[in-house]
Amino acid sequence: MNQRIARLLATMAALVVTLLALGGVSLARADDLPTFRLEMNNGKLNPARIEVPAGKRIKIEVHNTGTNAVEFESLQLRKEKVLAPGAQSFVVISPLQPGEYKFFDDFHQQAQGVIVAK
């Protein structure tokens, strides 16, 4: 019985090590994504046009540099992210086909932007 438990524990330990190793690979890959910075400030986007490589996952860092809450939203990309004043976060976007993808600040409708995949 003790040998069975020892084998079971050894198998579980090997599984945990494998899962941790795979998780580490995933985290390293997230850091390797092409990253683009977007500042949102009380109804203004900087830049309002973001050119990205087509066919690659990308990360957009969203920074709210304004004094009001903002919401990065893209219906085409099915992404939305609400940020309090001074907050920052990011969205990861799956590989895009070449083309233009609109985004906007849902709290400031005049703030319209476009992601251009080339």
Automatic annotation (TrEMBL):
It is found in: Periplasm. Gene3D superfamilies: Cupredoxins - blue copper proteins. Pfam families: Cupredoxin_1. Residues 18-117 form the EfeO-type cupredoxin-like domain. It comes from the Bacteria. Its main location: periplasm. GO terms for cellular component: periplasmic space. InterPro entries: Cupredoxin, EfeO_Cupredoxin. This is Cupredoxin domain-containing protein.
